[in-house]
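Per your request, structure below.
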């Protein structure tokens, strides 16, 4: 039965096998899904009178997270035959099969003083089985959104077999004012654009924030001194320290090493720009490239052994890969146009990039040997891709044309489907997606 149902759910966007198998409900993702899995989420049970609002809010957030992936489609409540009034009541599976709900998520919320507890169960409706064991999350009432994101992450993981990305944050540049006098400050938000908090004021230009691997710090480029300098910001207390550079040097495009102890970045001195690595503990600098061309935008592979970067050493802006210790580099981009801002995927198999060709900008991905290039977007100006923690979604900046053009952020999955704007007030750019929160 499950195999037959999944056959209805699955299609390839590009080529190759996508799904699925007999046994428990499971969605195997390769490139794209045209027919999403249907799921139902009856409003979670409120175990105490104080939990009424949280139960409603959390169940709706779970729906929003899952449906927002494009992999799942909600069966609306007005189609329900059965109602779930208790977390422990037996599930009337025939009623859920009749409305073609393949997955059923039931939950309960308890609020006592300032403490909130959420528990849930996930059912494969057509097999009549529970998928995994019930889970429970606890926190304060202020953290109800995180509890909802954690439930959605757990459901996503059980059905796809991959990690989720909902309980994560994104650091970005918040923009305001006219295009020719734009003010910029660092901000941080939940992955869905909620809970925006500002990390800096708008007294100086800030660019290209990058999360540390565990999300506790942010690197960014600041023009506070009049020259490009790299700052390290502690997210918890907003304390800052500056990466030391010599007078006249400009440092920019920083990224953390995978262990968070080192920074790789570009350093411009005397008209030449190369890639360097600095140990944050000792302050020791190591020069990794030495060429008359411009070498910038370095990004380390997940195992820390290689660096992908952009360079114009061949006469136009292209992507190259070299050892993390420097040395000979090999070119991986050979298509028409110019390539920049490469970012190695968390899985290690793909590189996301910005491409400019024939007057249009694109966000694309290619394998690390340069093969299977795919362009996911096209607009007047798309740039600055960043990966979700599970490597399935890319967020990026999009700027509209003209003197009144604005900048905003979008996300798209790696098949090129499910393009959507990140809902924010005001302009935004330069997103950097952090890890799942602990």
């Amino acid at each position: 039965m499950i195999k037959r149902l999944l056959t209805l759910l699955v299609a390839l966007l590009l080529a190759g096998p996508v799904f699925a198998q007999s046994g428990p409900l499971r969605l195997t993702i390769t490139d794209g899904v045209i027919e999403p899995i249907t799921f139902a989420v009856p409003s979670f049970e409120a175990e105490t009178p104080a939990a009424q609002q949280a139960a409603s809010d959390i169940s709706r957030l779970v729906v929003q997270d899952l449906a927002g992936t494009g992999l799942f489609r909600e069966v609306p409540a007005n189609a329900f035959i059965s109602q779930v009034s208790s977390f422990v009541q037996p599930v009337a599976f025939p009623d859920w099969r009749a409305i073609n709900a393949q997955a059923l998520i039931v939950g309960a919320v308890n609020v006592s003083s300032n403490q909130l507890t959420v528990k849930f169960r996930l059912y494969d409706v057509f097999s009549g089985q529970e998928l995994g064991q019930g889970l429970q999350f606890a926190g304060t009432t202020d953290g109800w959104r995180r509890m909802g994101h954690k439930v959605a992450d757990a459901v996503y993981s059980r059905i796809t077999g991959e990690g989720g990305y909902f309980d994560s944050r994104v650091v970005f540049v918040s923009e305001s004012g006219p295009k020719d006098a734009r003010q910029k400050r660092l901000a941080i938000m939940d992955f869905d654009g909620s809970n925006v908090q500002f990390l800096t004021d708008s007294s100086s230009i800030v660019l290209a924030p990058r999360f540390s691997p565990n999300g506790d710090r942010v690197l960014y480029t600041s023009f506070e001194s009049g020259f490009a300098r790299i700052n390290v910001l502690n997210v918890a207390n907003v304390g800052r320290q500056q990466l030391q550079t010599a007078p006249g040097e400009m440092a920019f495009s920083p990224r953390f090493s995978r262990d968070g102890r080192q920074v790789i970045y570009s350093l411009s001195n005397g008209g030449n720009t190369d890639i360097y690595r600095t140990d944050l503990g000792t302050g020791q600098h190591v020069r990794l490239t030495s060429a008359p061309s411009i070498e910038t935008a370095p990004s380390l592979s997940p195992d820390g052994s290689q660096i992908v970067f952009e360079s114009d050493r061949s006469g136009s802006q292209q992507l190259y890969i070299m050892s993390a210790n420097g040395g000979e580099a090999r070119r991986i981009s050979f298509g028409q146009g110019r390539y920049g801002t490469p970012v190695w995927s968390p899985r290690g198999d793909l590189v996301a990039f910005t491409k400019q060709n024939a007057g249009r900008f694109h966000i694309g991905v290619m394998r690390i040997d340069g093969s299977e290039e795919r362009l996911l977007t096209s607009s007047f100006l798309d740039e600055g891709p960043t990966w979700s923690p599970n490597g399935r979604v890319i967020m990026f900046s999009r700027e509209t044309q003209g003197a009144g053009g604005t900048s905003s952020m979008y996300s798209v999955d790696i098949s090129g489907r499910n393009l959507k704007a990140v809902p924010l007030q005001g302009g935004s750019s330069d997103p950097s997606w952090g890890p799942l929160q602990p």
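The longest strand covers residues 103-112.

Regards,
D.
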